[in-house]
Write a sequence for this structure.
């Protein structure tokens, strides 16, 4: 593989990593603060993409569709929290898994009923169309660079909120010792609602930003959800810093692995076998990385220190 192609794939890995961070950040907060396993988090990513495509088709503008999709994702997240998830906080993890899996089925069918089964598209905004020269002979899409920049900016904003504000202090305390937070008079239910709504909006934001690149279709959040769980396990449950670093690692491992493994396999196998073996091994790399981290750091790379 040439150096130019390697650079492109590395940038693609960073872009996938920041999208995974936007999904995993909300998921790790919900799991860390609320001890709640939300399998339906990937559906909120899907809904963000559908809302973005829907509002863009009506308004004729990506920039008008983006805030509307974020508000829609927030509203749907709050509605689900009030109607369904709030009643599961005191239940065991098995009940949470079964209930949120049911939400996945309902919302996937709801999306098919409203928008149909055919994939939908969200065009790249004209302002971010085209490419930018990052080295002689190499142009990289402006929109993908914008995704990386938006993800980094969101990560910085989340860090400021979590580390430098009173709300962030409560979130960190809730992730460390939620019983003590409740005993000190904090309205834990309101804190849970805030965390859940933030997570839903972040997942919706990731969906809108991914929609111009990936196909918008029912079930599109399933793969992202699996990778997001890998991210929070590697990074440490409840850790924003861990989610950010782990998301970039997973994005790079997944993207570079799919690009490099077939070429590496050609060193020992014929072309056809190398493609098949390379693709199979590449699909396992992120899980091998997760297993390796858990073997040496069972709580993840940056665990939240419990009290």
């Amino acid at each position: 593989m040439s150096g130019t192609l390697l650079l492109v794939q590395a940038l693609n890995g960073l872009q996938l990593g920041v999208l995974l961070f936007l999904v995993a950040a909300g998921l790790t907060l919900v799991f860390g603060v609320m001890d709640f396993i939300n399998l339906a988090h990937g559906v909120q990513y899907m809904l963000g993409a559908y809302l973005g495509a829907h509002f863009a088709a009506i308004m004729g503008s990506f920039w008008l569709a983006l805030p509307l999709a974020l508000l829609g994702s927030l509203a749907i997240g709050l509605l689900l929290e009030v109607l369904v998830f709030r009643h599961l906080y005191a239940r065991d993890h098995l009940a949470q898994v079964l209930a949120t899996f049911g939400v996945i089925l309902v919302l996937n069918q709801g999306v098919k009923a409203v928008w149909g089964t055919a994939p939908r598209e969200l065009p790249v905004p004209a302002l971010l169309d085209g490419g930018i020269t990052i080295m002689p002979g190499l142009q990289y899409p402006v929109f993908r660079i914008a995704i990386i920049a938006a993800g980094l900016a969101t990560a910085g904003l989340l860090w400021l909120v979590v580390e430098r504000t009173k709300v962030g202090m409560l979130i960190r305390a809730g992730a460390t010792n939620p019983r003590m937070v409740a005993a000190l008079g904090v309205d834990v239910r309101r804190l849970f609602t805030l965390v859940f709504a933030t997570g839903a909006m972040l997942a919706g934001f990731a969906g809108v930003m991914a929609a111009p690149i990936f196909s918008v279709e029912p079930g599109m959040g399933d793969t992202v959800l699996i990778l997001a769980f890998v991210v929070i396990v590697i990074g440490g449950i409840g850790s924003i810093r861990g989610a950010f670093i782990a998301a970039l690692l997973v994005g790079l491992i997944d993207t570079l692995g799919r690009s490099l493994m077939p070429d590496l396999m050609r060193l020992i196998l014929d072309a056809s076998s190398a493609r098949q073996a390379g693709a199979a091994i590449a699909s396992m790399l992120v899980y091998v990385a997760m297993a390796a981290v858990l073997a040496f750091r069972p709580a993840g790379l940056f665990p939240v220190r419990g009290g």
The chain has a mean pLDDT of 87. The CA atoms of residues 36 and 90 lie 9 Å apart. The chain has one domain: 22-296. The first strand starts at residue 131 and ends at 135.
